[in-house]
Amino acid sequence: MKQAPFIAVEGPIGAGKTTLSSLLAEELNLPIIKEIVEENPFIDRFYQNMDDWSFQLEMFFLCNRYKQLEDTIGQYIAKGKPVISDYHIYKNLIFSERTLKGINRDKYRQIYHILTDDLPRPDIIIYIKADLDTLLSRIAKRSRSFEEGIDKGYLQQLIEDYDVAMASLAVQEPSTVIVTIDGNTIDFVENRLQFEEISAKVKELIQ
């Protein structure tokens, strides 16, 4: 691969997506697209009552990410410039398949495909894979109030859903390179050498 105009960092809640994408953006001198999380007006209510607020939460995320990708990533890709994002639009399906049910899930799937089927897909996905204890530890460190008391069962299911999703993307998007990082043993924040190994791998792929 001579150039990767679009790099996405993915993983379940607390994996370190934004941290790693920010470090790589600085190291590789790339523009970065960060998803909006805390600005979602439904997020507090969602964690208090997932059944009542999941559709509103997921629709906000979908519309916001769609607008970001359409406006910002499209500008860079159109100019042949690399860009890095701390999410893949596919994450909307990962979460909505777990949080939505019945008619709401069916409606959401339809809207998702209408909005995203013609959006650019990443050339590289950096998938941070981590177990429950690692995620809980990182979630606690960042101290987001709405994540306090996050349901462990929900988080464990997301871990499994992400593994299935990455396998599915490998089939659906065969030209995409998926780089899996073991988040349990690799600390790209505290261990500079481990971060440089990740960075070197990405540089190799985009040269």
From TrEMBL:
Top-level taxon: Bacteria
Amino acids binding ATP: 11-19, 138-142
GO MF term (any one): ATP binding
Assigned GO CC terms: cytoplasm
UniProt keyword list: ATP-binding, Kinase, Nucleotide-binding, Transferase
Domain Deoxynucleoside kinase as annotated: residue spans: 7-207
Active site: 86 (proton acceptor)
Database matches in PANTHER family: DEOXYGUANOSINE KINASE, DEOXYNUCLEOSIDE KINASE
Family: Belongs to the DCK/DGK family.
Name of this protein: Deoxyguanosine kinase
Natural source organism: Paenibacillus albidus
GN (gene name): dgk
